[in-house]
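## tool: complex_structure
## caller: assistant
## args:
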Amino acid sequence: MNAAGPLLRLAQVACIRGGRLLFEELDLILGPGDAAMVTGPNGAGKSSLLRLAGGLLSPAAGAAVRGDSVALADEGLALDAKLSLGRALDFWAKMDGRDAAGGMAAMGLAPLADVPVRMLSTGQRKRAVLARVIASGAALWLLDEPGNGLDSEGLDRLGAAMAAHRAEGGAILAASHQPPDLDGARQVALG
Amino acid sequence: MSDLILRELRLAATGASALLPLIFFLLVAMLFPFAIGPDAPLLARTGGGALWVAALLAALLPVERLVEPDRASGFLDQLALRGMSEENIAAAKLAGHWLSFGPPLMLAALPAAALMKLPEAVLARLELGLLAGTPGLAALTLLTAALTAGLRGVGALGGLLMLPLAVPILIFGAGMSDPVAGAGAVKLLAAASLFLVAITPFAAGAAIRAARD
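## result:
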């Protein structure tokens, strides 16, 4: 992990989607161990801010600079439906030069390794998406509504994984329309 | 990159839709003699061109499964986050798609040629033409798939976009059946095919990037 500079730096960032200005003049710097919680009503631009932070969208104004490793958990499952969960996650772990087992264990998915992805429930899919982020080893986690669809045990596992990630010097930018649950996280209110 | 190509092959091999273009191709080859009648010389003369039309239409069938599922599931986003360029993604998809489409189609051309009563010399030229032309067809399919990703009712629109661009391949591919003009046609066919293969990673890559916004 790049311990020297910030893991994410947004400077005077503006975002326009579909001809509508979602937010502008947004500043945010996340260093090792930092976390920020993006809050706001539906359509305020939380997901767009995360995609912008990950480089999937270009800012309409300002600059978004990030470290070299970013992991995103959004509503996209991005796992081949016919593969077993273990093999589907291994595809990405191999690309990251890592092993998927750690992420699966962290989210309690180890017993489901042989189950085809298409058989998973909503909550299990969400766990799989989070397991990919945990296994990626990326310094910056971008989590879009990470708690959606998780049961209380899943929420506990997510909280533990996020705390461990920050303790190891990672940073988290999470978006949620629910009240934040990250200790000491900065608030970024949109809309 | 090789992982992506292998994944394309796996998707093509495990999906039920993978065999569809081949079955379609053979079906046209079966139906054509019924429509023309059992006139062997006439079939032999027209069969090569008919098989090229069948190959072209068969190439159109996978348009909806090549790019759109990966866009909708966030697969392309995850690749982009890992620093893979859209051009590399498109090139890998092109290689994987051709491997699952070109060689099987060349195999299917053997029974198809028998149904059309094509002479051996014409069959040899048809196979050579498919070898040169299917990469171009695969590229065109991928390009259309990338351009229409995210749109609804892609089937008809894909045909409208793709078929006019496939006309050079059709002309030179079918022209190869002619024993006299065939030698020149194969070079032009290869040139048209190579042109499509060369531009597709960039054009499809740009389309994938544009679809993200």
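## assistant note: Chain A touches chain B through 23 residues (CB under 8 Å). The two ends of chain A are 33 Å apart (CA to CA). Handing back to user.
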